[in-house]
Design brief:
Layout lengths: L5 E6 L2 E6 L10 H16 L5 E6 L4 E3 L12 H20 L5 E5 L2 E3 L1 H8 L2 E5 L3 E3 L13 H9 L1 H10 L3 E2 H7 L4 E3 L1 H16 L3 H13 L7 H12 L3 H11 L10
Parallel strand pairs: 2-3, 3-5, 4-6, 5-7, 6-8, 7-10
Antiparallel strand pairs: 1-2, 8-9
Helix pairs in contact: 1-2, 2-3, 3-4, 4-5, 8-9
Length: about 260
């Protein structure tokens, strides 16, 4: 499939998805959100892709926010639909994807950009990155999961402060807060992401998908994460990956997981 605003490159079972709107600092307009949603679903359906890295083009921004020109004249109903559609089309899709998604935050990650990064399963940032949710300066709040995911990642108090003050934090502060897992130079960022991704792709994709579902369950209202873990753990015993992994362990060899 051809995309107008994103580029996909694949190598060694890893897909690198680049948001390619450098003149707009990779801002998320409706077309880009739709393309990203379609791309993630297509990559998840590709059995050859076992990890995904998402980043922004250029050296300034991961995603500098949403495209305000698209919605500044919206009314209440349109605003609600904008948020709902974003959740359904992209942000919830990424969070619940069976294929691991690593956010490579290579510059500004603001508003919808930080919300997209937080939807990823984990994040790395370059040392020039700036992260924040400045929506209250526009008279609105984060609408793509920011109020929920930020609190889950950094705690309620820090999330309240970040959102109310609209301040940007540095990559080092994001690391200290637990918002990102690692900080590198900009030149080393993609290599660091790929190094982690290569460790991931050696493992059972079926087990990894189960782990994602179990971890997410613990942050879902009305769902008992422990019960989900028990269920997912049991399901693993019926997979070919389990048979291969345990047999390889007993035979003292590396497992070759079929992904089934």
């Amino acid at each position: 499939m051809n995309y107008n605003n994103i580029i996909i490159e694949t190598e060694e079972n890893i897909a690198v998805l680049t948001i390619n709107r450098p003149n707009q600092l990779n801002a998320l307009n409706s077309e880009t959100i739709a393309e990203l949603g379609s791309a993630f679903k297509a990559l998840e359906a590709d059995n050859n892709i076992k990890a995904i890295i998402i980043t922004g083009s250029g050296e300034k921004a991961f995603v500098a926010g949403a495209d305000i020109k698209e919605f500044y004249q919206f009314d209440v109903a349109q605003g609600k639909e904008l948020s709902k559609k974003g959740h359904q089309t992209l942000f919830n899709v990424v969070e619940n994807l069976n294929t691991p998604v690593i956010g490579a935050v290579n510059g500004f990650a603001l508003g919808g950009g930080l919300e997209l990064a937080m939807s990823c399963h984990f994040r790395l940032a370059s040392d020039n990155a700036k992260l924040g949710l400045p929506e209250v300066t526009l008279g609105v709040i984060p609408g793509y999961g920011g109020t929920q995911r930020l609190a889950h990642l950094v705690g309620k108090g820090r999330a309240m402060e970040m959102i109310m003050t609209a301040k940007m934090i540095s990559a080092d502060d994001a690391l200290n807060y637990g918002l990102v897992n690692h900080v590198t130079s900009q030149e080393e960022l993609m290599g660091a992401c790929k190094k982690i991704a290569l460790k991931i792709v050696k493992n059972s994709p079926v087990a990894i998908a189960s782990a994602i579902r179990s971890l997410n369950a613990g942050y879902t209202d009305g769902v008992n994460g422990f019960e989900t873990e028990i269920e997912e753990f049991g399901k693993c015993f019926g997979t070919e990956d389990f048979k291969e992994g345990t047999t390889a362990f007993i035979e003292k060899r590396k497992a070759a997981f079929p992904g089934k």
